């Protein structure tokens, strides 16, 4: 089969087309013919940083975590999937799991689900990593109907899904963005836009919560921005973040009695830990999509498998709006 290989890591490491052996299905897994895959920030980090990241595969490597496609073969013990089923998931491209930048991949059946009937393969491929992350963060933070929720980075990959899911769960959603396009997308998705470049945290907390703060803050920016999340949260509030590889003064969180939830959705794949939970979340997400509660936003630029290097560059440029998707 055709695959795009990374033979060495680095900032501009090249993807090379290669003819590699088609993988063979094994027990508990399915063989999927890949229709589309999407690029996530962690994919670009693996390519750039290589073995500095403990989750990077040995080279030559087939990267790509997210995919949608059609089941071509079913391994022993798999009962939920049949040949011809259209599926989606996040099931490779790290550690010892070959990824989706190829014609076929073998995926653990616990890490996939049937794709939503109302989504294209491209749309389905855009969802798994970001949607599982958003769902897990909101669930761990105990989202409830009627809460005021702030999403930092609501036009980004994880953020635009968290915003829609929070709306679906009955919350009143506000979201930060840094430009007209970003704020327009936030409003289009049903959130109230906040321009973090022109409004201070104190100003928008006063304006939207009468100074009380937000019940739940979903921070898809993280890092230094977590101090803004602590400031924006209500007393005894909940903060969920996807980026916490930093040193921070937790004093503000202490005096407000905040709960901090760190979401690292790769744990089930990396450690073979409760993988079935990802399949379960993906089933729920497909149902939410079919009910009209979630629709991924795709970047306007299209890329073929041969152009995957350009797809990575597009995401890294910061100019993409929505998910960058590769047509396999």
From TrEMBL:
GO terms for cellular component: cytoplasm. GO terms for molecular function: oxidoreductase activity; RNA binding; zinc ion binding. Its main location: cytoplasm. Pfam families: ADH_N, ADH_zinc_N_2. SMART domains: PKS_ER. Homotetramer. This is Zinc-containing alcohol dehydrogenase superfamily protein. It comes from Rhodopirellula maiorica SM1.
């Amino acid at each position: 089969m055709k695959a795009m290989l990374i033979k060495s890591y680095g900032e501009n490491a090249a993807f090379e087309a290669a003819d590699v052996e088609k993988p063979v299905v094994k027990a508990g897994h399915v063989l999927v013919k890949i229709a589309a895959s999407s690029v996530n920030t962690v994919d670009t980090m693996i390519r750039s940083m290589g073995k500095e990241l403990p989750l990077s595969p040995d080279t030559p490597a087939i990267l790509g975590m997210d995919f949608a496609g059609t089941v071509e073969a079913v391994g022993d013990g798999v009962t939920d999937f049949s040949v011809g089923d259209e599926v989606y998931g996040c099931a490779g491209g790290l550690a010892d799991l070959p990824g989706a930048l190829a014609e076929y991949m073998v995926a653990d059946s616990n890490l996939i689900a049937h794709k939503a009937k109302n989504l294209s393969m491209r749309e389905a491929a855009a969802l798994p990593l970001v949607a599982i992350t958003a769902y897990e963060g909101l669930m761990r933070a105990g989202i409830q109907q009627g809460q005021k929720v702030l999403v930092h980075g609501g036009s980004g990959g994880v953020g635009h899904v968290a915003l829609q899911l929070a709306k679906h769960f009955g919350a009143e959603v506000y979201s930060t963005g840094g430009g007209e396009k970003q704020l327009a997308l936030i409003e289009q998705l049903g959130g109230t836009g906040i321009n973090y470049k022109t409004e201070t945290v104190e100003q928008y907390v006063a304006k939207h919560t009468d100074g009380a703060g937000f019940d739940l803050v979903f921070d898809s920016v993280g890092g230094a921005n977590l101090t803004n999340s602590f400031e924006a949260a209500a007393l005894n509030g909940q903060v969920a973040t996807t980026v916490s590889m930093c040193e921070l003064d937790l004093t503000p969180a202490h005096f407000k009695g905040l709960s901090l939830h760190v979401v690292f959705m790769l744990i089930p794949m990396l450690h073979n830990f409760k993988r079935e939970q990802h399949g379960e979340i993906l089933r729920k997400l497909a149902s939410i999509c079919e009910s009209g509660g979630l629709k991924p936003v795709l970047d306007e630029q299209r890329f073929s498998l041969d152009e995957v290097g350009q797809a990575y560059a597009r995401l890294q440029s910061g100019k993409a709006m929505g998910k960058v998707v590769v047509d396999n």
